[in-house]
Amino acid sequence: MNRIKCFLPLLFLLLAANIQAQQLPQVDSLSVYILNRTVQTIQSLEACSFKVNTTYDVLDEDLGLVKHAGEEHVYMNFPDKAKIHFFGDKGRRVLWYNKTALVYYSFDKNQYSVIKTPDSIIKMMDVVSKEYGIEFPAADYFYDSFVDDLINTGGSLKYLGISSVNGNN
């Protein structure tokens, strides 16, 4: 009986440690390797273009969550030129960046604004995002710290294999 009393606290300690270990985020080294290679490839580009489709929910007091959609066409010529064309529920607008300034134009409202900016796309995105709340599509991939930031969020990171998107692997 004394042996059982002695081992019982140890058993609870082991169970608690096992439960704690199961709840810790897991980071798969293969997924980190693939993400690092992807980011390095993206950051080595002299120019790129891509299209991003987004959906987001907006809380409406009467209707609850209302789903909205948008599409962005991004063209970048590193380190100092970019054009981002936005289409969607927020209207049609465009951003042009040319090393010294960012021009915002709303086609729907026929309004524009010019913002003086730093001399690189990354610095410009930082300043404009912080000061004006403008989000840049897929901007995270262009930062050196992307993979480390992703790991530090505390979530799990696992390689799930190759899948097909629009017929491409």
Characterize this entry briefly.
With about 170 residues, the protein is of the alpha+beta class.
Which terms summarize this structure?
single chain, globular, 31% strand, 6 strands, disordered N terminus, alpha+beta, 4 helices, six-stranded antiparallel beta sheet, 169 residues
The overall strand count is: 6
Q: Specify the overall morphology.
A: globular
- Work out the helix count: 4
pLDDT below 50 for ≥5 consecutive residues: which ranges?
1-18
What gap, in angstroms, lies between the N and C termini? 62 Å
User: What does the average pLDDT come to?
Assistant: 85
Please report which band the strand proportion falls in: under 5%, 5-15%, 15-25%, 25-35%, 35-45% or over 45%. Answer: 25-35%
Q: Output the helix-strand order.
A: HHEEEEEEHH
Q: What portion of residues is helical?
A: 25-40%
Mind telling me the C-alpha Rg? Answer: 23 Å
What is the structural class?
alpha+beta
What composes the largest sheet?
6 strands, antiparallel
Strand order of the largest sheet: 1-2-3-4-5-6
Verbal overview:
The protein has 169 residues and is α+β, with helices and mostly antiparallel strands. It contains four helices and six strands. It has helices at residues 2-23, 29-43, 121-132, 146-152, and strands spanning 47-60, 64-77, 81-88, 93-97, 101-106, 111-116. A six-stranded antiparallel beta sheet has the order 1-2-3-4-5-6, covered by helices on one side. The longest helix is centred in the N-terminal third of the chain and has 22 residues, at 2-23. The termini are far apart.
